[in-house]
Task: structure prediction
Amino acid sequence: MSSSIPPDGEAISHFVSQTPFDPQGVEKLSPEQEKVYFASQLKLMWWKFRKHRAAVWSGIFLLLIYLSILISEFLAPYSLERRDVRAIYMPPQGIHLFHEGSFVGPFVYGYDFKLNMQTLKREYVPNTNDVQPLRFFCRGDSYRFWGMVESDLHLVCPAEDGYFYLLGTDRLGRDVLSRIIYGTRISLTIGLIGITVSFLLGISIGGMAGYYGGWIDHVVQRIIEVLQSLPSIPLWLALAAIMPVTWSPIVVYFGITIILGLIDWTGLARAVRSKLLSLREEEYVVAAELMGASPPRVIFRHLIPGFMSHLIASATITIPTMILGETALSFLGLGLRPPVTSWGVLLNEAQNINVVALYPWLILPVVPVILVILAFNFLGDGLRDAADPYHSA
Amino acid sequence: MTTFISRVWGLAAMAAAATATLVSATFAEEPPSLKDAVESGQLPPMEQRLPDVPRVIDMAALGKTNGTYGGRLRMLMADAKDIRMMTIYGYSRLVGFNEKLEIVPDILESFEVEEGRIFTFKVRPGHRWSDGAPFTAEDFRYSWEDVETNEALSRGGASAVMMVDGEAPQFEVIDDLTVRFTWSKPNPQFLPSLAGASPNYIVQPAHYLKQFHEKYATAEDLAERVRQNSSRDWVALHTVKARAYRPENPDLPTLEPWMNTTPPPAERFIFKRNPYFHRVDGEGRQLPYLDEVYLGISSADIIPAKTGTGDSDLQARYLRFDNFTFLKQSSEQHKFDVKLWKDGTGSQVAYLPNLNTNDAVWRDLFRDVRFRRALSLAIHREEINQQFYFGLAQPASNSVLDGSPLYKPQYAQAWSEYDPDKANAMLDEIGLTRGPDGVRRLSDGRRAEIIIEMAGGTEETDVTQLVTEYWGAIGIKVFPRAMQLDNMRRRFLSGETMMSVWSGLNVGLATPDMPPEELAPVSSVQGIWPKWGQHLETNGMAGETIDVPEVAKLAALFQDWRVSSTTAERTTIWDEMLNIFTDQVYTIGTVNGVLQPVVVRNTLKNVPDEGIYAFAPVAFFGVYMPDTFWFDKE
Result:
């Protein structure tokens, strides 16, 4: 806009310079400097992120665990439906390498089973003569891989006619490890689907409110206030209750993710709105508007990238709340129901005095819950730091 | 005489005490907790508090020992409504079951039955309510004439057991201590109803309740009392004040061994000894031995945990079989003993197809005996037994237990073997063909999906999980659904429920003299045939008429029982009903005779090692007489 000012009384002509912008026009940069100063925002973020070791390791951990849900059937030693009447409440079996001083390879000791009729307890005593070497890449319970391919290949299986319960079994004689592995699939994806719903709603509604302002903003603000003032647990209760029981557990699962998403978007919408309110006053937005860009183009091309990093960070913080939300709902018996297995369902089954006093291994599903939530929080922390690469702490 | 109020009676009793001449040598010392009151003259001495002829409990004959006074018994309950348990455990009845399940006089001195239709009751002379007022024929008269047949207080008329073929009894007061109920036909239900865990109350403390009755209180007084209690009217006030089964009114005089002293709502209820209780031990000590019973209200989920840490002296309610191991483990540290009693219900978990469900296709299917039998045959009862009950229960249909005089093996075995092939064949025969997904299709093409509604705990859920698999294997898909008990009752009466889960017959230990009411439609709270039950309950005003011949036969047999006069006759009727009931598989039983853990403080004596734990006929602890339990202080 550096062209000469027209004489009095004439309109300012609409002028757009076609000459490409030369960043080195003022000062020539050395290649080393160029590397830093010309680095894309993404690159800067990555550099910054790499410095946050906990975040990097958390990211790798989460990546692995998300990859694992693609092959849960293969990783789990047993199928989900497998019940073993001979192994009810069997305690975890340790993996050993050496038997009586000689190397055998990974194996487990079998258990001697006794029904103690005095205390009515199933007593399992490790039998150190019963060596059951584990098999790898072996044939076990059959399953339909991704619901399509019939297969029976497992990463690890018990010895022929043996058993392998690394984390013990529950009251129906089901393998806790396999159930946790299958539960991972549900518990981790419920976060993703929920977050997608919540982001779509949050960005578009918050974006509209922030960009247009005025009465739209007012209406949206009031809706958000109403939604946020509803106590969440009773609301979940009501929403979970209206889902018909005849729905298949998978549909119920989707229903719950959508419910979680429908409730969760308000916080994000507020953040988006306030960001937009401040960003739309920026000069580059005014410039884009003057150049005739339409509102969607302004929002999605110019405004959203301006705080994309913020969105990513808030997503990583929101996913664990979604996972916890599912766990809490299922723990209360309102969320997922057996036979769908999630961490929350497993924990729901572990909530009684017998488990605490006699079968403590059934509480193990809290371990993955804690690990995943921690990992997401570290990752989110790292991303938030990295999201503002020009700011040095 | 009947116009005296309680305080006057207390004074009268004291006057009697002053003029009393000799203290009989057969009476033992006063309970220490009452000694002060007796010495200061607030209470008359024991021989004046007891009836002239108390009921003497021969401890040795019951395998018990004479005890000493004192102590507080702590128990845990999950709901303030559970204070009714004290009425059940106390089990002080006009006539009651003894341990051999015979009906014997308890509060009454004697009773006489002629032709099964004329009942003459004789009250113990000198028997007093817990406030010291005499208990006389007037209390019977008041209950019958002023409450039960009072149009305002009993809008629906007298209760069903009092009516034989629509006919009410003729009530007579023979003398101050003797009353008679006469029907023109036999009423075999009458005595068992008086001996019930939830008894038919034909006696009410007239001297206390008259102040709330329109007929006896002056209009101004009554209006004032109604206002003070913020009741709707005198009817509501009387009903609340007279509630004896759930003893929420601490002022209501009682004949039970302990009386409530805490008005609800409360987190703990303290029951104190009734100083006028009518039973004594062989050495003349007035029962109960225990001074106080303390009910702590907690949550059902944590009662097993609290019991395990020694918070209860006597606990069976809210404990389940699978808590045994945990309880046994902590029993030494916290000084209690875990006894195993036998559960007295006909089946631990039973499935009740609703023959009155709204869905026409399902209704026809549930009414098809082949379908019910197929469902029963598909259940692997021995696996359930091994899995949840250590093989200590009995796989059986929902029927009477081995200990009942009516037991026959064929009832327990009726359609209760595991035979999925036969079950599949039967379903094929009905024409339920399997779809490509393995689920059978109904006649209108829908998938055969049953929603099972339940209001119970994890035990029902677990067993149902196995049943879901068993029925899934024969092509019937099951969806369990948990809900609240009240909601569930409403739903099955309206026909929305397809199938519900309950425990089996309450009277697993039935004798022929107990009414076979659970085997026939009698009430709208029956999950199998709520609408037929309602029809009979309301004399045809609501519900539906029975249109299945076998059920009509059961209803007719029950009517026959209601007018039968001899035990032999009743035995025949029971046999026939059990035969139809188990052969038709109206309820699908799983296992019975499950063991019930009973936690007993080490120092608490006279609790039997073996017993039956059931609501009816033994009233849980009631028949084993908790008033004879005592704490050994050494």
